[in-house]
Amino acid sequence: MLAQRVFGIALGYKDLMDHQTLRDDPLFQTMTDIPPSPDDSLASPATLC
Prior knowledge:
The protein contains 4 helices and no strands. By secondary structure, it is mainly alpha-helical. The protein has one domain. The model has no long low-confidence stretch (mean pLDDT 87).
């Protein structure tokens, strides 16, 4: 979750609202060391709060 948040900030996503769409993005999943899969998503905004 920390990597997801750090990469989000580095890419210019200042708030957590964008993470709802980014959590299913294959490139974003690859950057955070999660193998891209439609079944596995990254953390939701509610989890990151």
